[in-house]
Amino acid sequence: MNNFLKVAIFSLLMVGAFAGYSNFGIPQIEPAPPPVEEKLDLGAMTMDQFVALGDKIFHGKGTCTLCHNEMGRAPMLDKIGTVAHERLGDPRYQGEATNVEEYLHESFVKPSAFVVAGFGKSGTNDTESPMPDVSGGGIGMSDAEIAAVIAYLQDISGSDITVSIPTDVPEEGGDEESEGGGRAPLESAEAIIAEFGCGACHKVAGETGEMGPDLTHIGALRGKDHLRRALLDPNAEISEGFMEGMMPDTYGTQLSGKELEMLVDYLAGLK
Description:
CATH class of the largest domain: Mainly Alpha
Shape: extended
Helix content: 25-40%
Order of helices and strands: HHHHHHEEHHH
Low-confidence stretches: 26-37, 173-179
Strand content: under 5%
């Protein structure tokens, strides 16, 4: 009996000592605070600062470098200010721009107005661009952000910067629905895929993108838990032959819970 009491007391002392050391002896790791959405004070910006903002968006939120890089997925843009003039006079040009600034803006929101030879969607004879409208879907750049990127592209290509810093930027918020990024809920997985431009990179829902994994039979290979994680944290596991950072990691905030599960169910059924 005495031995039992000794063992019990010793065990309690050890547990207490370990708990105390865990709580007070080991430095606690505090999680990083959530990112704070950046507020743009365009009225106080100089043109140099506006160009720097465009640089930041081009290499960040805009995800432009995922395709416009030396790997050749899309044309390089370091000389766009010069070649834009040539494209405006190309017989294949189907847009309405009359100058470089208008051409660049059009290329962001109507990328199929002119498709550089060899960079069109497969089977379209370079008449349809795989690039999505960057003002919607998974990128969602505002008019001011697009203008900043245009100023940046004009600057790096050695062209005159013709963009004016916007001053009539609408206030954020308002009466829009907060769920799903302030837009009307999407009613089908196909609508989600179209809205977020998934087909620009993936073969899915009749689209023929080639920059990301083929999803036509993904449900036969992956379960719902994996598919959900791939949408919310795409860099957690990278498919062989692809690079980290190719897929935006913002769908967790841009899709409502219902839309996310609708898309997961759809992908899981592709067998």
